[in-house]
């Protein structure tokens, strides 16, 4: 028998190759990634582990800046160097082996020291979506961070020492529309139904339908009817307290039909309604985070340089204050519920239609703003996406690494507060900073040759840092000894863990999906602990 | 590269292991109490310590690379799968030319070539094909599987290797630690299991999310979601229309099959006014695809590799004992002590007891074995010994026996020769060994079940 020939086109090679990740960030996320260009400074084990997980999913291009020659230690801990790489330029060798992972990715190697580029060709860095730096000295870190802050290019600064690791993300501003929350709240508007929804809900008479149809009524209708019944004897208030919600639940229980022996029939939709009461009765409100965004100065004082995000926020504010009557556009998403196909699809279409109408209003406002400001147009699809996620918008307003290194008063008190708690992860942060200070003073990692003799010198760095943040010295020296034991060693599995995390954050930044770390991540592999700090 | 060259290359590069030697040859204030720094630890890791990596997929590739660069040479990798195009977004030891080849072999070949001295060995077969003698040779097993059933089987195997002294105390030398990692999209977990000593896979079955299923009546009568339409074509329409003839089974890896299901599901969706049936969704539902990305796998595997290194060297105390990770909102991890179940089927070394009403049917025992969170079996085969002879009560895995024993399910257990205190022997895909369970009749039905 001839096999039936399908009409639908087969997927492209690329779609098949990236299938497992397209399910996480979609075709538009992939496209954003393919337009991304990542710069890595120093192809250490940590550096190549980061690039590995960026090259595999198909970033557009990578550039490695590295002026060092490959050593035996490099080969021992870095998978993207081989024995024949010895004494060759580290960046060039790592690039060659990294690009083997994915022929779609373009790559460049630059064999100049970072300091020289900063001095002679600072515009070099303007081309990148994200710059990632590993194993830099204190001075270069501050120069590079300041420059990237000025030209508004995100920087991820990474360290891996012994069992400790950290990364710090510096970006001025990062807006996320698609945050992909784990538990997204439903937006059903039962407390304030739009007209078509109210008409539809009112058209049901659940007492007078036959048993089969009774079991097919969506729980939204059931809860709406139960609330109406409850309101009749409660001055039309909205049930808020646990007690009041329980009263609504028992009204639903009374709706359930009974058999000839007066035993309630098992009606799944009514059971679902009782379970859904607590979340479905949450009143519709403007989330505080959305409100803050709509009224912050970037949204209220637009200029022709305003980003599309802020223009859309401004248009959204217009909607909330006008047509939306204090509420955001309808999400247009209906959770699955026991119901007949007809009821469910009808209801789903009501929500979708209203969502489209609301988004349309916002889009018109966007067009008006764009016309007034003479700036680039924003597509209707982008506005729709923005409205769909208006409840979960996320903005990171970053801080500069310069202020962190200068230990400004707010940074100092933040560090001191955590040290007083006491938070051992902040102790690790102090040690990582102290080790960096040590390296800039002594031109080697603490404990590189002799752990014992370096302990006192490292302790001096720790004490200096602690006094700068107005903290007493640590009562014990155990963390200092541990850092000296590491002697600047880079442990492959620690770098591999951080590599996965940093690649992940870079992808979030480039795709503008999911929430990145804000802004410092500390990893202690010895205790399998991690922490996030916001400097 | 010739193996002779491999042998000597570590001598040629005295500084190659400089990094990890600092951890192994120096003492620190947070070391394991038993740790005594010495160059011999690296010798042990390189020359003696045998580690089995189960799975050469997203986690397995990373584990193999990580462990090889942490000094381990005596590595074994087992995986029955062959390489597919959709693996290449994360399984970085494979290239397009490798599609169709054994994952285990390809991965091992690549790493042995890249890391001189590494002597990894590949086993291209199901884990169930390897016997006790094989598993017993390892010091540590590290596992990166996507299947819960395979994980449980492996767990059962390591538990069955445990030996107990006369006083019922555990013989420590029979313990092979298991480090287990798993990922799903931007989430993952890693854990350390000391068989017989800390919580095992079976102790914490409730940590696995229940599988999403759709009730048949919804699929058939009241479809609402695009998934319902796809399930309908998969479960009902395929068998009815038999599009390839000869009762050809639906193959989620055959693009023509997927395309057929996609079109039929679209037809059904249009008929019911349902939108968003896509090819990608069709494939996802048919193959139960779990999203996966390189970065999550890298992080989880690295965490497992660190724990293997700690176990092999004692240079640091192990994680105690379960870490969950979520990279969707920032990077969040949480490490907790999963508790060992005193009545665990796999690791408690105690007789398993099932309490049941005296007038129960065999079906009720069968259902209990599938649904009780302690057992969660897939298709248990139940036998017993009556008057010294084995008697099969029910077995679904072999068709002729299933037909012969099917009627027993409806019978009362007492009519089948079972009694209070009788032992039943249960076999299942989730465990390599038959489990003996003692029946305990409940005195009367008013007595509350002791939990």
TrEMBL record, chain A:
Q: What is this protein called?
A: NEDD8-activating enzyme E1 regulatory subunit
**Has the keyword Iron been applied to this entry?**
no
Q: Which family does it belong to?
A: Belongs to the ubiquitin-activating E1 family. ULA1 subfamily.
Q: Which residues form the signal peptide?
A: none
- List the GO terms this entry assigns under cellular component, sorted alphabetically: cytoplasm
One MF term in the entry's GO annotations? NEDD8 activating enzyme activity
Recorded source organism is Spodoptera frugiperda
**Cross-referenced InterPro entries:** APP-BP1, ThiF/MoeB/HesA, ThiF_NAD_FAD-bd, Ubiquitin-activating_enz
Q: Name one GO biological process term.
A: protein neddylation
Q: What pathway annotation does it carry? A: Protein modification; protein neddylation
What keywords tag this UniProt record? Ubl conjugation pathway
Question: Organism classification, top ranks?
Answer: Eukaryota, Metazoa, Ecdysozoa, Arthropoda, Hexapoda
Which residues does the UniProt record annotate as the domain THIF-type NAD/FAD binding fold? 18-531
UniProtKB/TrEMBL annotation, chain B:
Where is each E2 binding domain found? Answer: 354-442
Name the enzyme's class.
ligase
User: Which InterPro entries does this chain map to?
Assistant: E2-binding, ThiF/MoeB/HesA, ThiF_NAD_FAD-bd, Ub_act_enz_dom_a_sf, Uba3_N, Ubiquitin-activating_enz, UBQ-activ_enz_E1_Cys_AS
GO CC terms: cytoplasm; nucleus
Catalytic reactions of this protein: ATP + [NEDD8 protein] + [E1 NEDD8-activating enzyme]-L-cysteine = AMP + diphosphate + [E1 NEDD8-activating enzyme]-S-[NEDD8 protein]-yl-L-cysteine
**The keyword Transport is annotated on this UniProt entry:** no
Q: Which GO terms describe its molecular function?
A: ATP binding; NEDD8 activating enzyme activity
The protein's superkingdom reads Eukaryota
Write the Enzyme Commission number(s) for this entry: 6.2.1.64
Q: Which UniProt keywords apply?
A: ATP-binding, Ligase, Nucleotide-binding, Ubl conjugation pathway
Pathway(s) annotated for this protein in UniProt: Protein modification; protein neddylation
One biological process GO term for this chain? protein neddylation
Provide the active-site residues from the annotation.
217
Q: What does this protein do?
A: Catalytic subunit of the dimeric E1 enzyme, which activates NEDD8.
What is stated as this protein's family in its record? Belongs to the ubiquitin-activating E1 family. UBA3 subfamily.
Its protein name is NEDD8-activating enzyme E1 catalytic subunit
Its source organism is: Spodoptera frugiperda (Fall armyworm)
């Amino acid at each position: 028998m001839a096999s039936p020939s399908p009409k639908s086109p087969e997927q492209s090679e690329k779609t098949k190759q990236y299938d497992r990740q397209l399910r996480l960030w979609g075709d538009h996320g992939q496209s954003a990634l393919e337009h991304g260009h990542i710069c890595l400074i120093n192809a250490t084990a940590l550096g190549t582990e980061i690039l590995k997980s960026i090259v595999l999913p198909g970033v557009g291009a990578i550039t490695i800046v590295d002026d060092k020659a490959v050593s035996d230690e490099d080969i021992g801990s870095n998978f993207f160097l081989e024995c024949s790489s010895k004494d060759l330029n580290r960046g060039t060798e790592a690039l060659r082996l990294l690009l083997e992972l994915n022929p779609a990715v373009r790559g460049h190697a630059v064999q100049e020291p970072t300091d020289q580029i900063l001095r002679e060709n600072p515009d070099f860095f303007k081309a990148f979506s994200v710059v990632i730096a590993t194993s830099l000295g204190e001075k270069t870190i501050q120069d590079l961070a300041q420059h990237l802050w000025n030209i508004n290019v995100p920087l991820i600064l990474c360290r891996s020492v012994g069992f400790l690791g950290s990364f710090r993300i510096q970006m001025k501003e990062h807006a996320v529309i698609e945050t992909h929350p784990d538990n997204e709240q439903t937006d059903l508007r039962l407390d304030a139904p739009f007209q078509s929804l109210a008409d539809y809900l009112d058209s049901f008479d659940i007492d007078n339908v036959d048993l089969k149809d009774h079991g097919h009524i969506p729980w939204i209708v059931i809860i709406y009817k139960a609330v109406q019944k409850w309101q009749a004897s409660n001055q039309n208030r909205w049930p808020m307290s646990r007690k009041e919600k329980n009263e609504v639940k028992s009204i639903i229980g009374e709706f359930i039909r009974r058999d000839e022996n007066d035993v309630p029939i098992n009606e799944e939709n009514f059971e679902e309604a009782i379970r859904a009461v607590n979340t479905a009765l949450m009143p519709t409100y403007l989330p505080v985070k959305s409100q803050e965004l709509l009224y912050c100065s970037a949204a209220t004082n637009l200029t022709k340089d305003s980003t599309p995000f802020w223009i859309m926020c401004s248009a959204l504010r217009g909607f909330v204050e006008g047509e939306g009557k204090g509420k955001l556009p309808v999400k247009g998403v209906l959770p699955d519920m026991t119901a007949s196909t007809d009821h469910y699809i009808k209801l789903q279409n009501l929500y979708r239609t209203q969502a489209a109408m609301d988004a349309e209003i916002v889009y018109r406002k966007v067009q008006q703003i764009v016309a007034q400001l003479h700036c680039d147009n924003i597509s209707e699809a982008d506005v729709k996406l923005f409205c769909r996620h208006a409840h979960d918008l996320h903005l990171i307003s970053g801080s500069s690494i310069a202020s962190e290194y200068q230990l400004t008063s707010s940074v100092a008190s933040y560090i001191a507060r955590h040290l007083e708690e006491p938070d051992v992860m902040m102790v690790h942060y102090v040690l990582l900073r102290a080790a960096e200070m040590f390296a800039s003073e002594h031109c080697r990692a603490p404990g590189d040759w002799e752990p014992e003799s370096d302990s006192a010198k490292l302790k001096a760095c720790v004490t200096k840092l602690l006094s700068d943040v107005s903290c007493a010295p640590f009562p014990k020296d155990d963390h200092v000894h541990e850092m000296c034991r590491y002697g600047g060693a880079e442990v492959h599995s620690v770098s591999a863990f951080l590599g996965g995390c940093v690649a992940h954050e870079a992808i979030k930044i480039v795709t503008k999906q999911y929430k990145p770390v804000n802004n410092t991540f500390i990893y202690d592999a010895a205790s399998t602990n991690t922490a996030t700090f916001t400097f | 590269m010739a193996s002779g060259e491999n042998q000597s290359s570590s001598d040629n590069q005295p500084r190659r292991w400089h990094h990890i030697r600092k951890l192994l040859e120096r003492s620190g204030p947070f070391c394991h109490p038993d740790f005594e720094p010495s160059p011999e630890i690296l010798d042990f890791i390189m020359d003696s310590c045998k580690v089995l990596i189960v799975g050469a997929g997203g986690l397995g590739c990373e584990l193999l690379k990580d462990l090889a660069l942490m000094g381990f040479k005596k590595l074994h990798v087992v995986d029955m799968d062959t390489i597919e195009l959709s693996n290449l977004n994360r399984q970085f030891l494979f290239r397009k030319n490798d599609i169709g080849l054994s994952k285990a072999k390809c991965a091992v070949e690549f790493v042995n070539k890249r890391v001189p001295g590494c002597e990894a060995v590949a086993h291209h077969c199901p884990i169930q094909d390897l016997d006790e003698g094989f598993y017993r040779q390892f010091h540590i097993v590290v596992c990166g599987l996507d299947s819960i059933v395979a994980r449980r089987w492996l767990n059962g195997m390591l538990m069955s290797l445990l030996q107990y002294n006369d006083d019922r105390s555990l013989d420590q030398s029979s313990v092979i630690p298991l480090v287990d990692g798993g990922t799903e999209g931007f989430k993952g977990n890693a854990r350390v299991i000391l068989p017989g000593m800390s919580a095992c896979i079976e102790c914490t079955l409730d940590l696995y999310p229940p599988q999403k299923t759709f009730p048949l009546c919804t699929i058939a009568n009241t479809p609402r979601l695009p998934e319902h339409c796809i399930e309908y074509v998969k479960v009902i329409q395929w068998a009815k229309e038999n599009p390839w003839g000869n009762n050809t089974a639906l193959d989620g890896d055959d693009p023509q099959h997927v395309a057929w299901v996609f079109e039929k599901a679209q037809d059904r969706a249009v008929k019911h006014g349902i939108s968003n049936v896509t090819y990608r969704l069709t494939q996802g539902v048919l193959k139960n695809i779990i999203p996966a990305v390189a970065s999550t796998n890298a992080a989880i595997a690295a965490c497992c590799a660190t724990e293997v290194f700690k176990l092999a060297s004692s240079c640091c105390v192990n994680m105690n004992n379960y870490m969950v990770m979520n990279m969707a909102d920032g990077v969040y991890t949480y490490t907790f002590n999963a508790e060992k179940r005193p009545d665990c089927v796999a690791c408690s070394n105690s007789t398993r007891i099932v309490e049941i009403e005296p007038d129960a049917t065999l079906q009720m025992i069968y259902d209990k074995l599938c649904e009780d969170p302690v057992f969660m079996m897939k298709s248990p085969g139940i036998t017993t010994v009556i008057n010294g002879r084995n008697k099969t009560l029910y077995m679904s895995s072999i068709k002729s026996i299933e037909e012969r024993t099917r009627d027993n399910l409806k019978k009362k257990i007492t009519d089948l020769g079972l009694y209070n205190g009788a032992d039943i022997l249960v076999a299942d895909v989730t465990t390599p060994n038959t489990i003996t369970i003692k029946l305990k009749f409940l005195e009367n039905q008013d007595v509350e079940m002791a939990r």
